[in-house]
Amino acid sequence: MKHTLTRLFVVAASCAMALLCGCASVMNETTQPMKIETRNADGTFVAGVECRISNDFGVLTSHSGDTAMVRRSSMDLDIVCKHPTSSADNATARAISRANAGLAANFLNAGVGIIVDHKKGTAYTYPTWIRLTFGKTLVFDRAQEKEGRPVEGTEPGK
What we know:
Elements: H1 2-21, H2 23-27, E1 31-39, E2 50-55, E3 58-63, E4 67-71, E5 77-81, E6 91-96, E7 98-99, H3 101-108, H4 114-120, E8 124-125, E9 129-133, E10 137-141
Parallel strand pairs: 1-9, 6-10
Antiparallel strand pairs: 1-4, 2-3, 2-5, 5-6, 7-8
């Protein structure tokens, strides 16, 4: 009997923890990988360029060609990659943050954890692979993502 009660307590405590911390917090980390590539207007790739990545959780520096671990957030991600020779031709981008499956699971779970996951950012995801173009400002929307391919950037207002 004592062993059964202990087991029941462990199961109940585990369920309570999962409900309190939210589904997305259980399913997702606070960071996600994002591959950032840069290219010239003619399409030739330029690797190793310094890129500044920022959102409401802070600033991160990475290099084009690398995969950066970016902090998830409900806010969009701003990216500026410095052109190797001309600051006028920097590559600028905005990566749109979209709700992920963890947020949807919260709704199925009677809304438990929505506030926690929203504040932590774990309920959101950015595109996982983007290509910036020097001399352009582009927007990358995760809703356009196709597995195994970079998201195509669009110019704002188009």
